[in-house]
Write a structure and sequence with these properties.
heterodimer, A: Rossmann fold, two-stranded antiparallel ribbon, globular, B: alpha/beta, Pyruvate-ferredoxin Oxidoreductase, domain 3, eight-stranded mixed beta sheet, seven-stranded mixed beta sheet, 23 helices, 38% helix
């Protein structure tokens, strides 16, 4: 029997603020799971801390709400032990690019086959609006006592130089695009990163929904409002690395595109490189039966609870040599 | 040769020293292996600086016809090929003992050895040279040792090497200097009259990965052996260590292998770590042996991941554990400090996890390659808020094998983090013990469901209740990926399904559920895993020594020696550190009038737990915190003072180089 969208929803009361961009991301995740017909027990949503950290509780799959900044190592541990699981890690930009930035970089180096979605709103919402790592220098959102004194991190460029093999961006109010991006990220073999722009209606009074829609960004000629976001594929951009010779040129293009902000914010696939072995493939080169017999599939005890492992060969080397 | 009436009681202590990177370890491994092969029992320990090359490291190997468990302060045989080893150790060589040294270094002075820091140099000047005014030189030091009754054997290594190079037709002396360690070792074996064939076998064993190097070392060893025998006219002297029938069921094993081997047998299939001394060896051993033989003929495997930090190490291990895999991480104090928050998450979400905590000297970076037992209180309390954990301490290498299996059983049976306390003294020692018996091991996976959860595990909405409030604090558990077993985890307080709640009534119930597991564990864990009593105290004296962890061997050897002298006392080794086995300890200490707490830390942390739980004071505290493992000589001396009634209430031990 086909799984319906409602099958992926829980009855848990959602306490996000009205108008929160997180709702769009939650719906898009649920819709994607339904579109791809991923069995509920086969998926696990891992999250960090903050408003976005509550996401797994609203999704009817396994849901692991972890610690601030640590969602990636938790999620990678589960995936490496049971590669059959479909794993989505989610968290805020403070979670992933502030307190958890070290894990972000190292996850890129590993390229474990899973998806990481950052709910990017440039503020720490749940702690009442402090500046998060993606807030631009000098910007003063409403609860900041002073304009932001730190420069912002560039999530796309950081993902690129860290080794993520799929890097995309979407916008929480463009659910169709977002759903398509999540789907592509899931299907990608390797570590996929999605930077999802997500207005915080309560604390980010600068990068609002209206700001993204271009309410203040009118065409001087026609007077029409011009949305700030545009789709990379509509301007002929191709982020896919087709052969190894492409790599440097592609990486340079990603950096250029990732620096666009203000009146032109690109959405879509910045980068995709299927030529890098996943961490699972790297393990398989040392443990040949890893794919068929990963840690979670191994039986460690006999019917009478004796150990199945046999270390006598190891121990025999420690005996006297006869 | 083997003394019976003093600390050496039927044993011989052999020490080799040299600059880090000059082959001290290999030489000591060969010596240990050779003596083991010749039928002796071994206890060896390695001391080294936080340094890659150049600083002084040394290896002490105690050899006996009987099982031994510790080191002693004195040295019977000192093997050196540099001057620092003479400056640092020659004064500890006992009457009748001998020193192998390089006669070409005789005039080297203390000031000419840059790796001897000024504090050590001043101490050596004051303690050794202050007494007779001789020059601060290697020869002066050797003179001091000679006056103490040591016998000196000078080996001019360079000359020997040159002669050897002609013999083997290898003009590049630099290639041969790498073998000075083995030549020094062989010279000591020549004086001992040790069987040359057994020595050769041991060399081949230690260098088994490099057969060519093994053969050149055998040649060099034989050359040095023969040279020493003929130079000192030892041809007709009786061997001091003549081969015996080796016990067939013994192994010679290092403490950085034993717990890892336990993990393999326990079924640990995922280990994460961030490099740190002295814990890394545990993970590296697992990675080197990641393909696992199985009794059913199949092949298992363990995935070992080096993470970006210790926070990632513990959280990744927890992620693995959620899939039903026995998962562990291994670390030392600084890393464990970083793990505190995630430890609480594991306690809150009832995830079985094993943390092997190899203690070293703290606080902060402390003495990073030295020994201490100062993380007991920290392990018991690490993390904010209140959650259950088990803290379990091994006393020696053999125990650490079985204990690491028990640690996983406890973790899964009670669904909580288990901190397995080990330390530098265990990790960097080597011992002869019984072949590990994998047959006697039992795996207890607790309430891990193998099939689908049953209806009794479901709530009103039909959802699986991972944290079911029931008449037992232990709920059933399913791995991520189980059909019809969907649950949620959160570090927030949660409902039976695992969703966030701030309900005050559920909060109380969930706290009670989690923390009452400790009562259950205390009730179920067998006495021998809580605390072990050795010996019996003399009724009239009522003396008991109490301790935990790697002091065990030194205390038992000291207590045995006292018993030989007619002084009976009891030793209690505490193994379950948390939950604290108060009732059992009350029973074991019921006849005790004088309680002596022995620990490798400043504040007598076990002593403070005893006072807290048993409401009784510790009468004497023997402590050591200079980074060097406690010896049985030191414990013996301190206990004698106490028995004679003229000891201070707190005795600080300070031996060690």
């Amino acid at each position: 029997m086909a799984l319906k969208l409602s099958d992926y929803k829980t009855e848990v009361h959602n306490d996000w603020c009205p108008g929160c961009g997180d709702f769009g991301i939650l719906s898009a995740i649920q819709m994607t799971l339904a579109d791809l017909q991923i069995p509920r027990h086969n998926a696990a949503i891992f999250s960090g801390i903050g408003c976005s950290g509550k996401t797994p509780h609203f999704i009817h799959t396994y849901g692991i709400h972890t610690l601030h900044g640590r969602v990636l190592p938790f999620a990678q541990g589960a995936k490496l032990c049971n590669p059959q699981l479909e794993i989505l890690a989610v968290g805020g930009d403070g979670d992933g690019l502030g307190i958890g930035a070290g894990h972000f970089i190292s996850a890129g180096r590993r390229n474990v086959d899973m998806v990481y979605i950052i709910f990017n709103n440039a503020v720490y919402g749940l702690t009442k609006g402090q500046a998060a790592p993606t807030l631009k220098l000098g910007v003063k959102t409403k609860s900041l006592p002073q304009p932001n004194v730190n420069n912002s991190v560039n999530p796309i460029a950081l993902a690129l130089v860290s080794g993520f093999t799929f890097i995309g961006r979407s916008y929480s109010y463009d659910i169709k695009h977002l759903k398509d991006m999540i789907s592509r990220a899931i299907k990608h073999r390797g570590l996929a990163f999605l930077d999802v722009l997500q207005p915080c209606p309560t604390y980010n009074d600068i990068n609002t929904k209206e700001w993204f829609q271009g309410l203040d960004n009118t065409d001087p000629g026609t007077g029409k409002q011009m949305p700030r976001t545009y789709k990379l594929d509509q301007v002929g951009y191709d982020g896919v690395v087709h052969d190894d010779g492409d790599l440097n040129a592609k990486m340079a293009e990603v950096i250029l595109k990732s620096n666009e902000w203000g009146s032109k914010i690109p959405l879509g696939v910045f980068y995709q490189n299927d030529r890098v072995p996943t961490y699972q493939e790297r393990i398989s080169s040392k443990i040949h039966n890893y794919a068929a017999s990963p840690p979670s599939r191994q039986v460690i005890e006999s019917f009478d609870h004796k150990a199945v492992a046999d270390i006598r060969k190891l121990l025999d080397t420690l005996k006297v040599d006869n | 040769m083997l003394h019976e009436d003093n600390e050496f009681s039927n044993s011989l202590t052999w020490v080799i020293g040299g600059a880090q990177g000059s082959g001290v370890d290999s030489a000591a491994n060969i010596f240990s292996r050779a003596c083991f092969q010749a039928g002796f029992y071994i206890f060896g320990k390695r001391e080294y600086y936080s340094n890659i090359k150049g600083e002084h490291s040394y290896f002490t190997v105690r050899v006996s016809e009987h099982p031994i468990r510790s080191h002693v302060d004195g040295i019977n045989i000192l093997v050196s090929f540099d001057s620092e080893t003479i400056f640092r150790h020659a004064d500890k060589v006992t009457r009748g003992g001998f020193i192998i040294y390089d006669s070409e270094l005789g005039s080297t002075t203390l000031e000419e050895v840059p790796s001897i820091d000024e504090h050590a140099a001043e101490r050596i000047k004051k303690e050794i040279f202050g007494k007779d005014g001789s020059p601060y030189s290697v020869n002066g030091m050797l003179g001091f040792a000679k006056n103490n009754g040591a016998i000196l054997y000078d080996v001019p290594y360079f000359q020997v090497l040159r002669a050897f190079s002609e013999k083997v037709n290898e003009p590049a002396l630099s290639k041969l200097t790498r073998m000075i360690n083995v030549m020094a070792l062989a010279a000591s074996m020549a004086v001992l009259g040790f069987d040359k064939e057994v020595l050769a076998k041991a060399i081949r064993f230690v260098f088994k990965a490099k057969p060519k190097i093994a053969e050149s070392n055998v040649l060099a060893a034989n050359y040095s052996y023969d040279y020493t025998r003929s130079r000192f006219n030892l041809i007709h002297s009786d061997p001091m260590l003549s081969p015996r029938q080796p016990p067939v069921n013994n192994i010679l094993v290092q403490g950085n292998q034993s717990s890892a081997m336990g993990k393999i047998v326990a079924g640990c299939r995922f280990q994460t770590y961030y490099p740190i001394t002295p814990a890394s060896d545990d993970s590296e051993f697992l990675e080197s042996n990641q393909i696992i033989e199985q009794t059913d003929g199949g092949k298992g495997s363990i995935v070992v991941v080096q993470t970006e930090d210790e926070i990632a190490a513990i959280t990744m291990a927890i992620g693995g554990a959620l899939t039903g895999v026995r998962s562990a991480t291994a670390t030392s104090g600084p890393g464990f400090s970083l793990m505190a928050e995630a430890l609480g998450w594991s306690g809150m979400n009832e995830v079985p996890l094993v943390v092997s905590l190899y203690q070293r000297t703290g606080p902060s970076t402390g003495l990073p390659t030295r020994h201490e037992q100062s993380d007991l209180r920290f392990a018991v309390h690490a993390g904010h808020g209140e959650f259950p954990r088990i803290v379990f301490a091994s006393g020696d290498i053999e125990e650490s094998f079985y204990d690491s299996i028990k640690a996983f059983n406890f973790a899964e049976r009670y669904q909580l983090p288990v901190i397995h306390m080990l330390d530098k003294a265990i990790a960097n020692s080597i011992i002869t013990c019984k072949y590990f018996d994998q047959e006697q091991v039992r795996i207890d996976r607790g309430k891990l469901l193998k099939g689908l959860p049953s209806n009794s595990d479901r709530g009103i909405a039909g959802h699986y209740l991972r944290f079911k409030l029931d008449n037992t604090p232990i709920s059933t558990r399913v791995p991520l990926g189980t059909e019809n077993g969907i649950f949620w985890n959160t570090g927030d307080e949660h409902t039976e399904e695992g969703h966030i709640t701030e309900d005050p009534f559920i909060r109380t119930k969930m706290m009670d559920k989690r923390l009452s597991k400790l009562d259950l564990a205390l009730h179920e864990i067998p006495d021998e895993d809580k605390a072990v009593q050795y010996g019996r105290s003399d009724q009239s004296v009522g003396l008991t020594a109490i301790s935990w962890g790697s002091t065990k061997g030194a205390i038992m050897d000291a207590v045995d020696r006292l018993a030989l002298e007619g002084k009976q006392m009891q030793f209690v080794q505490v193994r379950l550190m948390h939950p604290f086995p108060k009732d059992l300890l009350e029973r074991l200490l019921s006849g005790t009038r004088i309680l002596v707490d022995i620990e490798m830390n400043h504040t007598s942390q076990l002593g403070s737990l005893i006072t807290e739980y048993l409401r009784r004071p510790v009468d004497y505290k023997i402590v050591k915190y200079n980074g060097r493992p406690i010896s049985s000589s030191e414990i013996y001396n301190a206990l004698v003072l106490i028995i004679h009634g003229n000891a201070p209430r707190r005795i600080v031990l300070e031996h060690g180089t």
